[in-house]
Write a structure and sequence with these properties.
mainly alpha, two-stranded parallel sheet, 16 helices, 4 strands, globular, CDP-OH_P_trans, CDP_ALCOHOL_P_TRANSF_CS, CDP-OH_PTrfase_TM_dom, transferase, ethanolaminephosphotransferase activity
């Protein structure tokens, strides 16, 4: 791309971000937050053999093909949009998660076109790859800032719910209802949250071993469904044990499997007296971030479990997407607390309208669907406003553009 095209692309992204900034602009971050971001240094540990010997070399090759004028955050949001496009495409063809439901165990062909599954596989792997090279592009172009890390992990927190919800269309409702997807979704969110809680406690990002395995497996599920059809997942591995059930159990164990490793990493961190940058929190401070996650889980569990109109079965995608929005907002605030070295919030502002919506859904069950959609728009608007405002505030503080490597005028 020539210089004129590069300048045009940068101007376009700057214009779009500037317009969004005018719609936001609320200073959510205090001066203490900003001073903490000034002191912040990224620290990470990756011990996964798969990552070290296979994935990272592949990312190194891919980033070498990327033009140096491309801003890392542009790579980040492009990857996230691929993941979002999978969700939107499957929502179009399978809104209520019933399109791939069949009977018996015979191989059936899904009414979802085969090309959709191939697109989802490619889109998933592209999103995964772009998420893996954005940080490398930042270091390559000497444009690493706390803004990039927050932007990356913030979008990752929102993408976390899209994985299990998209897989629900792969498995359909053969032996699992939409309500049964609740705990697998919460488990995947919990696995993401525990890694950032671990970073909040230690100041170090210990990259989880399961992350790459699950990403590769998810893309393969789309690909295999496109080749052999959704009936593939209904074959019995053992008497009474279907492939589908086994994979759902794996998702449910994602959180349980990641928690012991995080506790071990925390123990090793606190036992290391030679760390030049130790982070020491009291037990109460360390456990504080879990209050918001537990309250979120309890409120959504009550709604899904005691809904008088069986709201999850009627609108599974909206219900779980709203869960993902609230989770992403909680996660973003945790990440900001860690990066700025500030105390984590006890509760989340989105809980108040959530509690009100939950209460109204029991009082006015005939409009429960409208209540859910109303809360969806409230939480989506609030989360977008928060995210855009925070990134705009940090970009102003560091005197940079979000989607361009051009320098702001002094």
């Amino acid at each position: 791309m020539g210089g004129g095209e590069e300048e045009g692309a940068s101007s376009w992204t700057s214009l779009c971000w500037g317009l969004s900034g005018r719609m936001a602009g609320y200073p959510y971050l205090t001066s203490a937050h900003l001073r903490g971001f000034d002191r912040y240094k990224y620290r990470a540990v990756d011990t996964s053999p798969l990552s070290i010997y296979v994935i990272q070399p592949a990312w190194d090759f891919m980033v070498s093909l990327c033009p140096q004028w491309v801003a890392p955050n542009l790579i980040t949001i492009t990857g996230w949009l691929f993941i979002l496009s999978n969700f939107l495409l499957l929502s179009y063809y399978d809104w209520d998660v019933t399109a791939t439901t069949g009977s018996g165990t015979s191989l059936v062909r899904s009414p979802i076109p085969r090309w959709v599954w191939f697109y989802c596989s490619v889109g998933h792997y592209l999103g995964y790859a772009l998420d893996g090279i954005d940080g490398k592009q930042a270091r390559r172009t000497k444009s690493s800032t706390p803004v990039g890390e927050l932007f990356d992990h913030g979008l990752d927190s929102w993408a976390a719910i899209l994985l299990p919800v998209c897989l629900a269309s792969v498995f359909g409702r053969w032996h699992i209802s939409a309500s049964d997807d609740f705990w697998p979704c919460v488990s995947v969110l919990g696995a993401f949250y525990v890694s950032h809680w671990e970073k909040y406690v230690t100041g170090v990002m210990y990259l989880p071993w399961l992350y790459d395995i699950m990403q590769l497996a998810c893309g393969f599920c789309y690909l295999a469904t496109g080749i052999w059809g959704t009936g593939l997942w209904q074959y019995e591995l053992l008497p009474g044990l279907l492939i589908q059930q086994l994979l759902v159990w794996v998702l449910e164990l994602a959180f349980i499997g990641s928690f012991p490793m995080s506790l071990w990493n925390i123990y090793c961190h606190y036992s290391n007296r030679t760390d030049p940058h130790p982070r020491r929190l009291s037990l109460l401070q360390a456990l504080l971030p879990w209050s918001a996650f537990v309250v979120m889980t309890m409120l959504f569990w009550v709604w899904h479990q005691f809904s008088l109109t069986d709201i999850v079965e009627k609108e599974p995608r909206i219900f779980y997407f709203v869960l993902g929005i609230v989770f992403s907002n909680i996660s973003c605030r945790l990440i900001i607390s860690q990066m700025s070295d500030q105390p984590c919030q006890l509760l989340n502002p989105l809980f108040l309208p959530l509690l009100l919506s939950l209460s109204l859904s029991f009082l006015y069950q005939h409009i429960e669907l409208n209540i859910l959609w109303t809360y969806f728009f409230i939480s989506l608007t609030a989360h977008l406003h928060y995210g855009v405002s925070v990134v705009q505030q940090l970009c102003s503080h560091f005197n940079i553009y979000c989607f361009s490597l051009q320098k702001k005028p002094q």
